[in-house]
Amino acid sequence: QVQLVTSGGGSVQPGGSLRLSCAASGITFGIADMLWFRQAPGKGIEWVSTIRSSPDLITYRESVKGRFTASRDNAKNTLYLQMNSLKPEDTAVYYCETQGIRGQGTQVTVSS
Fold first, then answer.
1. Cα-to-chain-centroid distance, residue 74
2. What are the pLDDT digits (tens) for 37-83?
3. Alpha-carbon span 34 to 50, nearest angstrom
4. What value does the CA radius of gyration of the chain take, rounded to a whole number of Å?
5. Angle at 95 between CA 15 and CA 70, to 5 degrees
6. Beta strands at 3-7 and 10-12: parallel, antiparallel or unpaired
7. How far apart (Å, rounded) are the C-alpha atoms in residues 29 and 98?
8. Cβ atoms 8, 105 nearer than 8 A
């Protein structure tokens, strides 16, 4: 049974930083492509980033390029999303996903 537990969300001021984590179990993490999604209030879910297992290719949506960094620690079965220079429009519930399965999400609020 695949489980994805996301943590690290919170409230920050514009320009602040947060680091999200997604702990995975029930999968062979080292060969799994991992994705980050988010859903802002009143809006649909949007893709944020994909980090592939092989090759170690990472892609981002245009609006987060240069500010967000996805990474993975295969030894810890954990996916990360380092978010810097946060903007109010980054406010959303953030989810990790693999193999069509999405975790429970963590709230990120950017507000002054």
1. 16
2. 999 999 999 999 999 987 669 999 999 999 999 999 999 999 999 99
3. 6
4. 13
5. 60
6. unpaired
7. 9
8. no
Report which residue type is found at 39. Answer: Q
**Which tokens sit at 37?**
């999604």
Report residue 11 as tokens: 């409230």
Q: Which tokens hold the place of 1?
A: 């049974």
HSE (CB half, 13 Å, CA atoms) of 38? 23
The kind and range of the H/E element at 92 are strand 92-98
In the chain, the amino acid numbered 36 is: W
Nearest alpha-carbon partner for 78 in 41, 32, 111, 47: 32
